[in-house]
Amino acid sequence: MSQGIFGLHHITAMSGMAQKNVDFYVGVLGLRMVKKTVNFDAPDVYHFYYGDTVGSPGTIMTFFPFGEGPRGNSGADQATVTSFSIRKESLAFWTERLKAHGISFSGPEERSNQRQVITFRDPDGIALELVAHEGAESRPGWQNGPVPSEHAIRGFYGVTIKVRNHEQTSALLTDVMGFRLLEQKGERYRYEVGEGGPGTIIDVISQEDARYGRNSIGTIHHIAWRVANEDELRRWQSKLMGAGMHVTEVKDRNYFKSVYFREPGGVLFELASDPPGFAIDESVENLGTDLKLPEWFEPNRSAMESQLPPIHLPVIEGK
């Protein structure tokens, strides 16, 4: 029996300078670097994975840091906002932390269901939200980072995409992928999948006259949704093909298997398996410490390392 789609697995974006990206997501937001590897399709570029202590699916924000290069622009056919969960009691901590790091933000702004939201951007202009809500403590954050554990980010709350017409996107989400429409307010349509709640939510912004986005530095590349295992992944591959989607072959990403397709509004979706996870080539204690390469790249390690800029993790005082 199918287990369906559980929620978000990871969100992948494109950034500029590698060290600046590490300093922000580890040093400021307090996420753990759980894997330092390379873009399997462009191995002269890093692929960073940030998340909770063990890199649980539903907590992972990943980046391709391209260094100097053309800037993208966010718009229709893209994911536009990544939203993280925090505890309601952590609002004051986060407003003070953002101020202390010189980061401009708006909010806290009250939204439906008594959620409070802080909105800001990362160093490359990617839109982020911290959503304070009841029950966030049910998911642990990184316990040994620069942010006290009680205030740590608790994984994703949801993601926002923008399309010109939501109808075909909605049909795919609800009729094929198992999402449920929760509410509609103006041009915003909110859906959830699986058991619902934080980590299962997608907001679809429908704007007929929206300018199309351009993927490059400062934009989100794709959204990955969780499935239980490779068997489920292949079942979904067949189901999506049957629904008229152009789906890739199953790709081995070392830490999960996945397929890719574009939903009707043009946003790149991925389905990714939960196993095997990030501890297959490093202990949990040492996650993100060394550059890890898949076995097919190991013969070229020296050449690859010479093309990648050196980086260091921020020093965490008292840890």
UniProtKB/TrEMBL annotation:
Keywords: Dioxygenase, Oxidoreductase. InterPro entries: Extradiol_RC_dioxygenase (IPR052537), Glyas_Bleomycin-R_OHBP_Dase (IPR029068), Glyas_Fos-R_dOase_dom (IPR004360), VOC_core (IPR037523). The keyword Zinc does not apply. It comes from the Bacteria. Residues 7-133, 155-274 form the VOC domain. Signal peptide: none annotated. The keyword Oxidoreductase applies. One of its GO terms (molecular function) is dioxygenase activity. CDD domains: PcpA_C_like. This is Ring-cleaving dioxygenase.
